[in-house]
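Subgroup meeting minutes
Present: P.N., E.W., G.H.
Scribe: E.W.

1. P.N. recapped why we're keeping a running log of single-chain structure predictions: easier to compare across weeks, and new members can see raw inputs and outputs side by side.
2. G.H. added today's entry (166 aa).
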Amino acid sequence: MSYSHQVIKIFTTGGSLDKVYSPQVSNFVVGEPAVSEILRNANVNIEYDITPLLRKDSLEIIDKDRALIVERIRNDPNKRILITHGTDTMVQTANALSEIQGKTIVLTGAIQPAACRITDAAFNIGCAIIATQILPEGVFIVMNGKVFNPSHVRKDNKRNLFIEVD
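Output recorded in log:
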């Protein structure tokens, strides 16, 4: 069975996945979306379209930003949506998207920036690409090799991973 006939629309919002080191501020800042380079380097052979939406650390995403994300996804004609998002507030954004019907919406991100030598970025993006193709309609979080219901997940900052909760 092939799922590759459906375009995956990818919206980027920033987060650690897109962070790069800035010598001007001696710290990491949100840079250009890393997902295009990750997919190109992996020779991904599906049809996708990337639209940058925000360039923020997820701790800086406010309700107005979430409303913009919801509006853009609701109005997008594509049925399969992948959102790259910072991990700190990913669950809140996923829950805000839960009102949207008729689409498969997957959120993913990275604990370590894609620009780092040791990172979970490419793995999470790869998992999310597959999940976006095969999951039913609904909103999901894909992190650490698992698919989560946004109502039953949280980020465990001590272990740097997402865990299922009741």
